[in-house]
Write a structure and sequence with these properties.
The chain crosses the membrane at residues 6-26, 116-133, 139-158. Keywords: Membrane, Transmembrane, Transmembrane helix. This protein is mainly alpha-helical. It has two domains: 40-110, no CATH class; 112-167. It has helices spanning 11-27, 31-39, 42-60, 66-83, 87-91, 94-104, 112-132, 141-164, 166-176. Helix 3 packs antiparallel against helix 4 (66-83), helix 3 crosses helix 6 and helix 7 runs antiparallel to helix 8. The termini are far apart. Residues 33-37 have low confidence and may be disordered.
């Protein structure tokens, strides 16, 4: 690796540049994609738009996990490919079909509790990363606050995970019943 500096990027510019690149990746059509879309039939484009809308509705409006939403969209895609019908004819309106999937239990909604667990775990990971990245020779008040927050968050996660562990519930139920 060369040791010469070609240019310097200010750290504050990394986040806006990263967000801009993410936005461009989602909104700019590449030439290969445009050719494939132009080569396909208009009904194929409509079906793909319907399936993308189904995925988006399941994830956005109904708070279904990404894996379940993709699985259900793939199942609908396979069903449409086997039957050859249009999605509106086969399943009806996309919004009503997404709601029907959620109500029938085919798509599991993420609960508020699982979202809180995810947020708390993400906070804990960020706190640990910021602690590992610090200079331990110059440990100031900010590092002490970060360490305290990481310890509190980690303790909360460990206690609540331990309370939810299935074997603990079975042991507690057995103890309450006086079983061995």
């Amino acid at each position: 690796m060369p040791h010469t500096v070609l240019w310097r990027i200010p750290p504050a510019a990394l986040i806006p540049v990263g967000l801009l690149l993410l936005w461009l990746a989602g909104h700019v059509r590449l030439p290969g994609r445009a050719r494939r879309a132009a080569a396909g039939d208009a009904s194929d484009q409509d079906a793909e738009a319907w399936l993308r809308r189904l995925d988006g509705l399941l994830r956005g409006r109904h708070k279904v996990s990404r894996a379940d939403a993709r699985r259900l969209a793939a199942e609908a895609r396979e069903h449409l490919a086997a039957g050859g019908a249009r999605p509106e004819e086969e399943f009806g309106d996309v919004e009503e079909y997404a709601l029907r999937l959620v109500e029938e239990g085919a798509a599991r909604r993420r609960t508020r509790e699982s979202l809180n667990w995810t947020r708390t775990a993400a906070l804990f990971v960020l706190l640990v990363i910021s602690l590992v990245d610090r200079d331990w020779n110059d440990f100031g008040w900010w590092q002490w606050c970060t360490l305290a927050a990481a310890l509190i968050t980690g303790t909360w996660l460990a206690r609540h995970y331990r309370d939810r562990w299935p074997s603990r519930k079975a042991v507690a139920a057995r103890d309450e019943n006086g079983g061995t």
